Amino acid sequence: MAITFKEVTYTYSPGTPFEFQALKNISTKIEDNSVTAVIGHTGSGKSTFLQHLNALLKPTGGTVMIGNTTITSETSNKNLKPLRKKVGIVFQFPENQLFAETVEKDIAFGPENFGSTAEEASKIAKEMITLVGLPESVLSRSPFELSGGQMRRVAIAGVLAMHPEVLVLDEPTAGLDPGGRREIMQLFGDLQKKQKFTIVLVTHQMEDVANYADHVIVMEHGKIVKEGSPRAVFANVEWLHEKQLDVPASTEFAFEMQKRGFQFTRLPLTESELADDIADFFKKRGQTHE
Amino acid sequence: MNKILFGRYIPLDSFVHRMDPRSKLILSFLYVIVIFFANNWWIYLLMAVVAFVSILASKINFKLFVDGVMPLLWIIAFTMVIQILFGTGGQTYWHWGIFSITSVGILNAAYIFVRFTLIILISTLLTLSTSPIQISDALESLLMPLRKIHFPVYEVALMLSIALRFVPTLMDETETIMNAQRARGVDFGTGNIIQRLKKIIPILIPLFVSAFNRAEDLATAMEARGYRGGAGRTKYRLLKWETRDTLATLVYSLMAIGVFALRLL
């Protein structure tokens, strides 16, 4: 399901002294079956942008097309439920939204709201808990007994349980240890390849962007300042530094090497690309020396 | 939620903003007490003038005050209707069963309208021009004499300032949790009362749990920074009574004297 933004603006508390324009004339398209990464400084409007993806916020100007549904400022709050089933959002620190007595009930909450019967929902809960890498025995426990990382997985399972067509992730790995971070990102990457759905990912981890994203949107002060493939966006290291954004460590390393006279055909994004490029370089040099 | 003005603070640099929060608190109380002694229009005129001059001195947009009164208009209207329908005395215009509309009833209703409006204006002025932390400092300072009767002033002040500090945080958190549950298919606006009450559970439980966690973290952090209870601490924010406070007190005292003089009319 593709999502199209046409000249979207959003203003918080319009008409009060606390008025704040968070989005300014945003136009972009999130393609079907793609992984789109949204990066930008804190307060650049990323989270506001996210909430437009399933009409939690409605634009104050312009239109958002979610699949075949058009959302404008006049769209009524009724009949948005089917839309929310299609677009699942995992908010920052999603473990804070767990509430049910058992993990099973919490995961089943979403499907039940969208009309699944109790049996169906508990079947889905069983599937989901294995999907996120937790043993089935967890299902009967209280979510508040679990560790932080496990709670995060349960919360993610609760969103996946709705079988969304678009999965929106707001910093899904924030506050996790490196191991947990890798596992969670791997989970989303695999899932996306297997089930062919759309992922929109907000993150400060440029490695994740380089590894998983097809498309990158760079936001600053409520505007899209650049978008394109990760390679195109990360090619301009100096520009990103100016915007106080990072590039993947491999790109940074290559960039520094380039300054010292090392030649790259294109800046590498991942460690393996970097390793290949360096290996190639020495291979060529070896040949010329022979 | 954005419409609620009560308890909001608008940082500006004005005569009223720079006043000592203690004097603002006392004068607001004084104003509210004095207004109940009003019994003729001259007094209301005098008090309205004082209120408007105070608002002007705060440099806050007057429209905000109107917005502050609006949500309470229903309560005011309700009280006025009761007054009009059940008032007795003076000339009777209309009479039916226990209901009657009389000249005194209408006059009382008009008084109530003015009284309510002025009280709301002055209390809105206090909250708009004084940050919550200043209010809690002022309360602590004003409650100090109660220590003589073993009232836990430090503890109450601490609780108050922590509570005020976390109001916006908890509001943000409520918003996030509501959005998260909405994204999971909860429709907050629909259903009968029981269904709606049930929908509050997925908000309330996470909110309580996170408040408990937050309290634990905060207590640990405070202990780690050497907090050992209220007694024997020094203060970072010192309240200072200045000429402008004396001036304001003078104006309000004159108003109070004026009111009691006009009562004799």
From TrEMBL, chain A:
Its EC number is 7.-.-.-. It is found in: Cell membrane. One of its GO terms (cellular component) is ATP-binding cassette (ABC) transporter complex. CDD domains: ABC_cobalt_CbiO_domain1 (cd03225). Residues 3-246 form the ABC transporter domain. It is an enzyme of class 7 (translocase). Forms a stable energy-coupling factor (ECF) transporter complex composed of 2 membrane-embedded substrate-binding proteins (S component), 2 ATP-binding proteins (A component) and 2 transmembrane proteins (T component). NCBIfam families: ECF_ATPase_2, PRK13634.1. PANTHER family: ENERGY-COUPLING FACTOR TRANSPORTER ATP-BINDING PROTEIN ECFA2, HEAVY METAL TRANSPORTER. This is Energy-coupling factor transporter ATP-binding protein EcfA2.
